[in-house]
Amino acid sequence: MLRKLMASGPLLSRRLVDTIAAYVALLYLAVYANARALLPEFIFRDADKIDTQISGGATYDGTSFDAVGRFYRALGGAGTSVFVAALGVLFIWLALRQTRRAGSLFANLVLIAPCLFFNLFVASKDTLVVLIAVLVALAARRLGTVRTLAVAVVLYAGYAALIRSYFALIVMCAGSAWAFRRAPLPLKIVALLLAGAAFVALPDSVYTLLQHPRDVAVDYLVYESPFGARTSFYNLYPPDSFLHFVGNYAYSVARLNLPILFSFDVKGIAMQGFIALVLASAWPRVAPPADTRAASPRGGDTLACLILAHVAVSMLFEPDLGSYTRHLSSVALFAAVLWPLRTARAAAPSAPPAASVGPA
Prior knowledge:
Blueprint (H helix, E strand, L loop, with lengths): L1 H5 L4 E2 L1 H20 L1 H4 L6 H10 L9 H33 L5 H18 L5 H18 L2 H18 L3 H17 L2 H17 L2 H20 L18 H16 L8 H17 L17 H18 L3 H9 L2 H16 L8 E2 L3
Helix pairs in contact: 2-5, 4-5, 5-6, 5-7, 6-13, 6-15, 6-16, 7-8, 7-16, 8-9, 8-14, 9-14, 13-14, 13-16, 14-16
């Protein structure tokens, strides 16, 4: 159904797509210039902590907010504003340039909206993740899968070392997914058996280390956060054994990826649409069409594996739907880049050329 949506509607001319992208970028800049007056307070929650460090405060010394604060302090106030705004415009341009039809224009707007809202109106930790996504996506356009993966390893490892250590786990999962997708079926079965055996053999303290942060985060949302905990949830079981780990993981997969089942309202439906677009861009694997050279980036499979890795790791500890959407939206550009591959693959065998709408 999503593939049909992306391929639906009239074919849009390149000039029309560029014009739409320019108008969206101008609208973004207008909102960015007045963000404090127009956007809800919770958007600035993490940015305010970073601003404390930029201003010379010591409240968050030694934390990831301190590391990010040093980076933005080096840019200066004006430099930080220019950096975020320029990154936002580049993100919009790269995402909307993937548009071919009216349906894909609508879908790409759905993909970019959460990222702009959560990550590109303030200078935050996730703003830097968007920068990494842009760099990896640009690499994927020119480099093969292996070299794109190497670029991702360097960038993710640097981010993990300085800001969020779990990004090392994300890039390891992405490399494993890349290898798994290329392995023959017998080797896949062996790999799954070995991975299952390794997880069973882990000491119970590892399960606690991986999943207990969710309970800690939910406690904060429930008892201390002024913004509430509308979609937060605790682990079903104490994360102290393999069976409990599997049960908690399966529960989080349902809670975070099927929000419409637990939050049947406008926000839940909107988040469901966004999450579905991101996940469906990466799975199942689709090979590039043999008869087109421009359908996808050369390193597109790396982008798909990174999406899957972000999702897999998020299932371990994300405490609520808003946090999951915010973190997943930082790599929404990967999905926007990947969708043309799926629509081209579906249309390649039989679709006739279509007349475009708008000036050539």
